[in-house]
């Protein structure tokens, strides 16, 4: 009996507990429904307000407006070249359209930004462009998120995109820096047509493989790669983020990617093949075509002949001038790229140090080699990275043979490239590699990383002829540089000629043609 009473008491308690839960669930369900309805009404109100502002602005201006989202438009990288060439092409093609750039640069004016574009890229816009200066660019700075950086930057980009949208509502929104999470905000809240130019997927299957295989990289810390549990958690985090990234990116009406490598990843993540096309980024190859490769190398061979004759006669006199066209006693190895961690300038310096070690101190040794690192610094973090690289040079004992040039104007960049022997590139899975193309156009022999765009699109055979060299480690880079320096002038000339002919498909004109073709469906609808 006692056991029966105990069971009866438990059943009564269970029934009371269920009634209590039911009494709580019903009000919570009603409250959730009410809050959802309020949120939907709020979003609907925001959409109507923003789209009303867009229509009123268009009626006032008398024409449509295209806005580019580029928080770092005053930087000097390849992404900024895409921005200015895109604007120039659209301005020339559509004279009745107004243009706006959302930028997070502070302490500069629009005129100074345009002057910087002219000096760095030799690009002048045919018409004025309006700048919307955003105040919260720190929200997309990697330094703001020591952990969960991808998620933090993506969430920050949404807030920065909201600031941009409330400041100005365009008819067509173009994300030219890869902030995919801004696309749904402009499409669904602002009622804008949206397009995107993807330089590099925010997350990729290659990043997942690095974490799965527990390889330390700049974006996979040592303490995570050494811990199997943390690596597993990070894989799950990347997979979830990749799903959200794909959903955000699929909002784009037109998707342009800069290389075969990027295309493969974007198709896998965004799954919009009918709206996706390759538009190779613009490279200013015309500016380098005035360098007569044949004449320079004929001079090199003649000068080397005079040097050999002088040595045979016992003459200690030096013959020749500087650079590639004269003083063969100093070979310049040039790297062009922003001072970001993924560019892996440390690999360049370490490989160069190994090359110097193999040369020794005697005649024709380390004194005939010079490494020049040219690039742009976007912020304080990049400037601190340059200081760290200078420290590495001192640590390895090569600071006397390594020079840094920051944010140089285009003419100085051109001068350094056309006098260089080797163009150096070390970024793993570089999405494209504008610097690689510029080196090839300038007549330097390219040594690029054996991955990504350089491997698939750029340093590829041209009419069955070699166009450059590829490497993927300190030893292979040092060996490749040794091989290039040991080539005869005629062998180097053949590679340089092949390389120069092959890069015509990456010209400004080719980019403008492909970019205008990709955006034609959206632009033609804007003018109606």
From TrEMBL:
CDD domains assigned: GT4_ALG11-like
Gene3D superfamilies noted in UniProt: Glycogen Phosphorylase B
Reactions listed under catalytic activity: an alpha-D-Man-(1->3)-[alpha-D-Man-(1->6)]-beta-D-Man-(1->4)-beta-D-GlcNAc-(1->4)-alpha-D-GlcNAc-diphospho-di-trans,poly-cis-dolichol + 2 GDP-alpha-D-mannose = an alpha-D-Man-(1->2)-alpha-D-Man-(1->2)-alpha-D-Man-(1->3)-[alpha-D-Man-(1->6)]-beta-D-Man-(1->4)-beta-D-GlcNAc-(1->4)-alpha-D-GlcNAc-diphospho-di-trans,poly-cis-dolichol + 2 GDP + 2 H(+)
Regions annotated as coiled coil: none
Mode of membrane association: Single-pass membrane protein
Family: Belongs to the glycosyltransferase group 1 family. Glycosyltransferase 4 subfamily.
Biological function: GDP-Man:Man(3)GlcNAc(2)-PP-Dol alpha-1,2-mannosyltransferase that operates in the biosynthetic pathway of dolichol-linked oligosaccharides, the glycan precursors employed in protein asparagine (N)-glycosylation. The assembly of dolichol-linked oligosaccharides begins on the cytosolic side of the endoplasmic reticulum membrane and finishes in its lumen. The sequential addition of sugars to dolichol pyrophosphate produces dolichol-linked oligosaccharides containing fourteen sugars, including two GlcNAcs, nine mannoses and three glucoses.
Entry protein name: GDP-Man:Man(3)GlcNAc(2)-PP-Dol alpha-1,2-mannosyltransferase
Upper lineage: Eukaryota, Metazoa, Chordata, Craniata, Vertebrata
């Amino acid at each position: 009996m006692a056991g029966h009473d105990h069971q009866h008491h438990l059943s009564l308690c269970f029934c009371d507990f269920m009634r209590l839960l039911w009494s709580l669930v019903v009000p919570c369900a009603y409250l959730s429904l009410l809050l959802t309805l309020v949120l939907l009404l709020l979003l609907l109100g925001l959409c109507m307000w923003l789209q009303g502002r867009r229509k009123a602005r268009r009626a006032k201006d008398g024409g449509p407006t295209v806005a580019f989202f580029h928080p770092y438009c005053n930087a000097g990288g390849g992404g900024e070249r895409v921005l200015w060439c895109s604007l120039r092409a659209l301005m020339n093609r559509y004279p009745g359209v107004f243009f706006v750039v959302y930028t997070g640069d502070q302490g500069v004016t629009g005129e100074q930004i345009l002057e910087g574009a002219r000096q760095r890229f030799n690009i002048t816009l045919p018409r004025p462009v309006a700048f919307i200066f955003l105040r919260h660019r720190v929200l997309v700075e990697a330094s703001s998120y020591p952990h969960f950086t991808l998620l933090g930057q993506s969430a920050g980009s949404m807030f920065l995109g909201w600031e941009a949208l409330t400041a100005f509502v365009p008819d067509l929104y173009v994300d030219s820096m890869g902030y995919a999470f801004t696309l749904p905000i402009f499409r669904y809240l602002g009622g804008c047509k949206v397009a995107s130019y993807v330089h590099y997927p925010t997350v990729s299957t290659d990043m997942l493989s690095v974490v799965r295989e527990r390889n330390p990289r700049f974006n996979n810390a040592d303490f995570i790669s050494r811990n199997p549990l943390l690596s597993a958690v990070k894989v799950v985090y990347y997979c979830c983020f990749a799903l959200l990234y794909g959903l955000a990116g699929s909002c784009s009406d037109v998707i342009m990617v800069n290389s075969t490598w990027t295309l493969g990843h974007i198709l896998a993540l965004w799954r919009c093949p009918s709206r996706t096309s390759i538009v190779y980024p613009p490279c200013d190859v015309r500016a380098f075509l005035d360098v007569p490769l044949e004449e320079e190398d004929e001079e090199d061979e003649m000068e080397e002949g005079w040097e050999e004759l002088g040595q045979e006669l016992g003459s200690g006199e030096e013959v020749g001038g500087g650079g590639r066209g004269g003083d063969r006693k100093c070979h310049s190895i040039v790297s062009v790229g922003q001072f970001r961690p993924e560019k892996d300038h440390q690999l360049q310096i370490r490989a160069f140090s190994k090359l110097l070690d193999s040369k020794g101190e005697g005649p024709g040794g380390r004194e005939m080699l010079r490494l020049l690192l040219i690039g742009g610094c976007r912020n304080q973090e990049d400037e601190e990275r340059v200081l760290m690289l200078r420290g590495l040079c001192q640590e390895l004992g090569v600071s006397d043979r390594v020079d840094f040039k920051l944010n140089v104007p285009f003419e100085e960049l051109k001068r350094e490239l056309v006098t260089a022997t080797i163009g150096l590139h070390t970024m793993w899975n570089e999405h494209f590699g504008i610097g690689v193309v510029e080196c090839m156009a300038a007549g330097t022999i390219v040594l690029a990383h054996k991955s990504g765009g350089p491997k698939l699109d750029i340093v590829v055979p041209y009419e069955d002829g070699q166009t450059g060299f590829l490497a993927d480690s300190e030893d292979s880079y040092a060996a490749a540089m040794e091989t290039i320096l040991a080539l005869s002038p005629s062998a180097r000339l053949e590679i340089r000629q092949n390389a120069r002919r092959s890069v015509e498909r990456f010209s400004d004109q080719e980019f403008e043609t492909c970019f205008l073709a990709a955006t034609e469906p959206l632009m033609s609808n804007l003018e109606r």
